[in-house]
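Side project, low priority. Logging it here so it doesn't get lost.
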Amino acid sequence: MSGERKARVYADVREEASGLPSLLEQLGVLVVRKHLSEGDYVIPEDTVIERKSVSDFVSSLFDGRLFDQASRLTRDYEEVYYLIEGDLFKELKAWPSRRKQVIGALVALVSDYDVKLLWSPSRKESAELIAALATRPSTSRGGPVVINKKPRLGSIREWQLYILQAFPGVGAKTAERILQRFGSLEAFFNASVAELASVEGLGEAKAAKIKELIKAPYTKRDESKPTLEKFYKADEGSQG
């Protein structure tokens, strides 16, 4: 569509040799090359993708890197994807003694670290998967609002996190950072835009929208929808 803003992806400069960033550009994705401290690709600003060949995935498990890396990624990003290139189970035929450990590692990544796994037979398919992630609708990119199940009344912490995640662009990890930064919901609501922007994962644009939402006067139901749409459309625009 003419004038439509491109999906944007940050690619670690070390990925250039793989040719995958160029494949992403051929798919219409805006690729920004930079040195990433973690992960191979970042979809602004809460999703990270770690791309591994089958051999690298197996070796990282047995040299101790895999779970240490997964712990850091899930600490710093809302969504963590491991994109594994190649046929893992075909390769495991060459390592029959390691099969059980590798399968256990896959289960641990999903169940213990909340990592999402993607499988790809080639770089071309890897590029298509990353492009699909970058263009998917979500709450932070102007998609529908997801209403989370209410926590138990007796858990103050769960209520605090639940309330914070109702704000646009605030996921579970950002909500944790907000509470660690301000200590209470009252302090969060009274914080300035600059103070909100200092929280990792928010930034000035999101902080301004959150503050505007907090200060916005109540309107009747039939008058409120355009106002809410304004927040999410603005948030979508800030991704470009």
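Brief comment: Confidence is low (pLDDT under 50) at residues 139-147, 224-240.
Revisit when time allows.
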